[in-house]
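In this supplementary section we document a worked example of the pipeline. Step one takes a protein sequence of length 176 as its only input; no multiple sequence alignment statistics are reported here. Step two produces a three-dimensional model, which step three serialises into structure tokens for compact storage. The input and output of this example are shown verbatim.
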Amino acid sequence: MGIFDFLKSDKKKAQEQVPQRADEGAGPSRSAAADAASATRAAAERMAAAAPPRPAPAPAPATPTPGSAAHKAVPAAPRPTAMPKPAPPSTPPGAAHTPTPHSAAHKAVPAAPVGKPKPAAERRTYTVRQGDTLAAIAGRELGNEARWRELYAMNRGVIGANPDLVPPGAVLTLPA
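The serialised model returned by step three reads:
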């Protein structure tokens, strides 16, 4: 008898035993899986019976449309009042303020000096040529194409709303 014949005979024996096991389960003792399933079902039924009934969800209030009578009947929310404008400073902007010895400003740490705007001679400019883009200008003049946003922010008034359309002949101020 070869190994395969041995396996075939084991398979036949197993098939003969399966109907016998089924007959055994039909009697008073049931399998563990069937017992667990019925216990779970019974527990779920007990829990459902003990739980209080759920209230039905409340319907959402209808939102009136602007043309409906309900919309017109509701008064509009009051608009916030504008804050009063502060009084103009008595000293011109940029002028140094000398606090009195008893003021809190005198006791505080002195502020950093106000920077003066650079003269026009120190600012670098670039005249846009046909076919230039902000990225190309930033790469050539600033050394980094990613600085095109900075270039656009400084020259938005010259360039306009679309940074992709740079008008030839426009004079752009270059960042430092």
